Amino acid sequence: MEQLHIVGNERPLEGEIIVSGAKNAALPIMCASLLTRDCLHLTNVPMLRDVKTTCRLLQDMGAKVACDDVSCIDIDCSSVNQYRASYDLVKTMRASILVLGPMLAYFGETQVSLPGGCAIGSRPVDQHIKGLQAMGAEIDIQHGYIKARAKKLHGARIVMDMVTVTGTENLMMAATLADGETILENAAMEPEVIDLAECLMAMGAKITGLGTPRLVIQGVERLHGAEHAIIPDRIEAGTFLCALAMRGGKIILRHAAPKTMGAILDKLDEAGVLLEQGDDWILAEMRQRPKAVDIRTLPYPAFPTDMQAQFMAMNSIATGSSKMVETIFENRFMHVPELNRMGANIIAEGNTAVIHGVEQLSGAKVMATDLRASAGLVIAGLVANGITIVDRIYHLDRGYEHIEVKLNAVGAEIQRVRPD
Ligand code: UD1
């Protein structure tokens, strides 16, 4: 299993990083290809492990997927003849649940393995199921699989009990081919949901209310092929900015989407990072130790749970103390003991962590248990005294494209190592 070996130091980061396409937009959009017999041509796709898993999932079902290994993918689902998403794939990537809505809407039946628990919490899919049932689907849970059938889905008004990103995406995709109008209330407003809606509209779907909690979808007879460029990854960009906040220096992020990063940029500004931005770039400069910032994770447009671990790493070396409250996932503080092993002073109880900033972290061998926790440990390693070894980096490879190459280009010293 590969590791990252990170040599920490105080040399400022300098240079330019190109931000990749957003994983959380690419995955649902790839699944949207199941809604048409035509080809979907996607650009700015990040070549990540989760993207490759989605390719395998679609290929398993009979789709033809052509990938140039840089950033373009063509998906042709005209030969899909397998309606089952197996446990083996779903267990490695929860986002596989995103085939449920499109498969049911297009083929009238599907079987998708229940995702089960994951490191950051139980993550049920009851809202996906409830919404599809409201649209006329018959759903049974048998032998660990969601078995769904519907001759033709019909429109419905669905009020979601909580804001769910993939839940909104699944129901929105299903509704594009349903009879009549579907109204999704309390819908997620994440930029990735909007990106999916824009791709669906390019395919002929009729959706209004984008970026609001009320999405209205008029079902159409069929969707057609389209070309779509995936939006930039706001979490990847935010991770690099946290690295800068910790190490100091000046970096420019290109191909970024600052307009999707309001809450993240506000907190960096509060921490003392000097920021300038244009439509697709962010220039960031830091010449002091960061100031501690309080954070409460919430659905978009508030502060994202996917940036919590990285800001905790930053707060752990900040001046002053901070309080971070995680309201989205019940078990998302697994990086706390690892950061404490590196010398941080963090006390976590329930969904709240209190962080007393220390002057210096010290390198240690640490283990990451989920994607964003891994990112937090990597950036902590950048400023820690000595060498930090981050184990189990397959989590990191699920969501960051060549993170060590990108950080090394601005002055980090990170090596990918495969121990014997
Ligand atoms: C998506 C993102 C993930 C991000 C998360 C929250 C993708 C592929 N992943 O995950 O990176 O951390 O949003 O922004 O886009 N819930 C239920 N029942 C449901 C659905 C959700 O109780 O049917 C709960 C979850 O347990 C969680 C909360 O709702 O507590 C939000 O989860 P959700 O937005 O669905 O997360 P994902 O879509 O899985």
Can you characterise this structure?
This protein has 420 residues and is an alpha/beta fold. Helix content is 31%, strand content 26%. The protein is built from 14 helices and 24 strands. The chain has helices spanning 23-32, 49-60, 87-90, 100-107, 126-134, 165-176, 191-202, 234-247, 262-271, 308-316, 335-341, 371-383, 394-399, 403-408, and strands at residues 3-8, 13-18, 39-43, 64-67, 73-76, 84-85, 109-113, 138-142, 145-149, 157-159, 181-185, 206-208, 214-218, 226-229, 249-254, 274-277, 281-286, 295-296, 321-325, 345-349, 352-356, 365-367, 386-391, 414-417. The strands form six sheets. A four-stranded mixed sheet has the order 22-23-1-24. A four-stranded mixed sheet has the order 2-15-17-16, with helices on one face. A four-stranded mixed sheet has the order 4-5-3-14. The radius of gyration is 21 Å and the shape is elongated. 51% of the residues are buried. The mean pLDDT is 95. The structure holds uridine-diphosphate-N-acetylglucosamine. Residues 24, 27, 94-95, 121, 123-128, 162, 164-167, 192, 304-306, 328-329 line the site of uridine-diphosphate-N-acetylglucosamine.
What fraction strand?
25-35%
Class per helix and strand makeup: alpha/beta
- Please outline the major beta sheet: 4 strands, mixed
Strand order of the largest sheet: 22-23-1-24
Q: How far is it from the N-terminal to the C-terminal residue, by CA? A: 9 Å
Could you tell me the radius of gyration in angstroms?
21 Å
Fraction in helix = 25-40%
Mean pLDDT: 95
Shape: elongated
What ligand species are in this complex?
uridine-diphosphate-N-acetylglucosamine
Number of strands: 24
Residue stretches low in confidence (pLDDT < 50, at least 5 long) are none
- The number of distinct helices, counting runs of at least 4 residues, comes to 14
